[in-house]
Automatic annotation (TrEMBL):
SUPFAM superfamilies linked to this entry: Metallo-dependent hydrolases
Span of domain Amidohydrolase-related: 3-254
InterPro entries: ACMSD, Amidohydro-rel, Metal_Hydrolase
Gene Ontology biological-process annotations: secondary metabolic process
Entry GO CC: cytoplasm
Species name: Mailhella massiliensis
The protein's name in its UniProt record: Amidohydrolase family protein
Listed Gene3D superfamilies: Metal-dependent hydrolases
Highest taxon of the lineage: Bacteria
GO molecular function annotation: carboxy-lyase activity; hydrolase activity
Amino acid sequence: MFVDFHTHVFHPRIAEKAKMKLAEHYRLFCRCKGTPEDLLLRAGRAGIDHCVALCAATSALQVRPCNAYACYLQNNYPRITAFGSLHPDCADWKKELDKLRASGVRGIKLHPDFQHFRLDDKRLFPMFEEAQKDFIFLIHIGDSLPPEENPSCPYKMAAILDAFPRLNVIAAHLGGFRQWKYALDALAGRDVWMDTSSCMKEIPGDVLRAILKKHPRERLVFGTDYPIMDPQDEIDALQRRTRFSDAEVDEILGNGTHLLFG
């Protein structure tokens, strides 16, 4: 089974608005519609069997509706595994975890840059402690600011791994979007998963080769960042930039199966 481990889908009422926010922040054009139906159509064309849809609440007030949508996706789209969201300002985060568990949601997405908190916020620690038993975390890492100024960075992620060695976590964007040289220093080779989303257009070739040499291929999962990228385009870009063989690309596409389903 081939898995796209990094996608975003939105309710039709807000899909265009959500895409506009993505486009404004990253100064790019979202190629796809951003709906579950469009995601699954494009994934199928690319030979992808299953997708992980990530939800991230931009404020504490958005945690409940965000997780309600994750539960809806989980229970209405058999080819989608949904990840819910937490926020350090949310006082009822334990209840939210219970709701996610009851609906079969076993993943949490954190995006400090969009959610307006820092990844080194100690209020996250009780959440990691409680959820590490039965949840996978996918955490956005990196942006254009220097690591010490950016809400997320590879060094903050490394500190979390030190504090929670049993945490099952995916460091998005090969460990640090636009901070790949720091990801090479702080995360590559560690006991952490990385996804390949939103990397192939920007990552310098020498840094990409160094990360792939240092980080085991069996700890990489494929991701498109849909609706920003089309799945087939991203598969092609992955193979072109990495120069992996068909079998090696298939291995990365299949790694998400082991992570999701054992």
